[in-house]
Amino acid sequence: MSLQFLSNLDLYNNIVEQVLTARHFVWIGTADIKDMHVKYKGKVVPFLEILDILVKGKVEIRLLHAKDPGENFKRSFDKYPLLWKSMERQLCPRVHFKIIVIDGKIAYIGSANLTGAGLGMKSENTRNFENGIITDNLDLVDQIMNQFDDVWIGKFCKTCNRKAYCTDPIIS
Fold it and tell me: Which of 27, 32, 85, 86 could form a disulfide with 101 if both were Cys (CB 3.0 to 4.6 A apart)?
């Protein structure tokens, strides 16, 4: 794979397939998050069900997002109590990147949020025009992980000028 450019439907198909290969961890960074649905084993399921399946297999999940999700996401999330206990979540209003890292071996960077019109299951006529890159180049994967981790641990919190918009600070 090394470096692969994807757009629209190819992006959806490849990202979901790659997430399902996770054995140790999945880190997801997104500006927007909604109750995204995907195809899995011949049926349509919430992406949260995929994460729930991974958590049951002892895969660690980190979700870093910029704003509180909507009511549909919250209702769907309530159906997966194991995720409440197992998935780590952080909120940072400055997050605008879209990143998915799988086991420190594969990474996605691109324009698509964790929404139906971004990475989810939408038709060609309703999906956003998105693009991204999937890579297994370990130097690039490390750089992507470092950016995610810097935000995750609150490296920028003390000097952030957006604290007034931060409803759940990583570091106070």
Answer: 27
Residues contacting residue 53 through CB under 8 Å, at least 6 positions apart:
none
Cα(22)–Cα(123) distance, integer angstroms: 26
pLDDT band at 171 (very low <50, low <70, confident <90, very high): confident
Domains in the chain with CATH codes = 3-165 (3.30.870.10)
Indicate whether 105 pLDDT > 80: yes
Q: What is the pLDDT of residues 118-164, one digit of tens each?
A: 888 887 788 889 999 999 999 999 999 999 999 999 999 989 988 88
